[in-house]
């Protein structure tokens, strides 16, 4: 597992300090004097900045609320796990034997944290201008389009994968009502999983309301 050349090729970046990449790939369960939590903290901040700047330039007509929603759909555990899987990051992570048995290499929390840590490590070693094209390239390869509807659809996809695994069923979305004038209508949608209501949310379209309530359901399922 000490050969990182394939990972570096996927990132189009070569680490000068191999200790840094090892730290970024070391989960706290591995019981070393170091782990990737500090680099993860740094990576999270830098990813928020780079993605925020990218969206600011890409969507000049979007307001602050819309930009925040798009960024939230990219900069989260689901989004980072997707990018981590694209570069097969799970193959390289150092985890404990217990985590190995618990399929830790495929856990969203471990993968997304390691992705943030790797990005934090690149930033630490080479700075923002080197890291920025790496992140934007990964985003463009992973997402065919970057817009509000497409990005929000990932919540529905992610939730369906979770419910199929946990309940062997798919979520049911119910339209509870619509409010406001035609030009400014809001829809309320509730979500039901295995006969249980997991919440409701509003949106400017039925699709956006479904995505918003799917996000709520994912958070509740994770909390459980």
Automatic annotation (TrEMBL):
Signal sequence range: none
Recorded family membership: Belongs to the ribonuclease III family.
Keywords in alphabetical order: Cytoplasm, Endonuclease, Hydrolase, Magnesium, Metal-binding, mRNA processing, Nuclease, RNA-binding, rRNA processing, rRNA-binding, tRNA processing
Chain ranges of the DRBM domain: 154-223
Cofactor(s) the protein needs: Mg(2+)
E.C. number(s) listed in UniProt: 3.1.26.3
GO biological process: mRNA processing; regulation of gene expression; rRNA processing; tRNA processing
Summary of subunit composition and partner proteins: Homodimer.
InterPro entries in the cross-refs: dsRBD_dom, RNase_III, RNase_III_dom, RNase_III_sf
Enzyme active site: 44, 116
Protein name: Ribonuclease 3
Main location: cytoplasm
NCBIfam families with a match to the protein in the record: RNaseIII
Originating gene: rnc
GO cellular component terms, semicolon-separated: cytoplasm
RNase III domain: residues covered: 4-127
């Amino acid at each position: 597992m000490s050969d990182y050349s394939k990972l570096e090729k996927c990132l189009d970046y070569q680490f000068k300090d191999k200790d840094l990449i090892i730290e970024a790939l070391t989960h706290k369960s591995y019981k070393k004097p170091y782990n990737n939590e500090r680099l993860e903290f740094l990576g999270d901040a830098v990813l928020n900045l780079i993605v925020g700047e990218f969206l600011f330039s890409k969507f000049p007509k979007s307001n602050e609320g819309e930009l925040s929603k798009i960024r939230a759909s990219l900069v989260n555990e689901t989004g980072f796990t997707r990018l981590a899987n694209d570069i097969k990051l799970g193959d390289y992570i150092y985890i404990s034997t217990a985590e190995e048995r618990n399929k830790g290499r495929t856990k969203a929390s471990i993968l997304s944290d390691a992705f943030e840590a790797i990005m934090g490590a690149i930033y630490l070693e080479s700075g923002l201008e080197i890291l920025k094209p790496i992140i934007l390239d990964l985003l463009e390869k992973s997402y065919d389009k970057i817009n509000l509807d497409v990005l929000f659809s990932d919540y529905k996809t992610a939730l369906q994968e979770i419910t199929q695994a946990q309940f062997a069923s798919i979520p049911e979305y119910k339209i509870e009502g619509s409010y406001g004038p035609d030009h400014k209508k809001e829809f309320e949608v509730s979500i039901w999983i295995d006969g249980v209501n997991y919440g409701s949310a509003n949106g400017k379209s039925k699709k956006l309301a479904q995505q918003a309530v799917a996000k709520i359901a994912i958070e509740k399922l994770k909390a459980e």
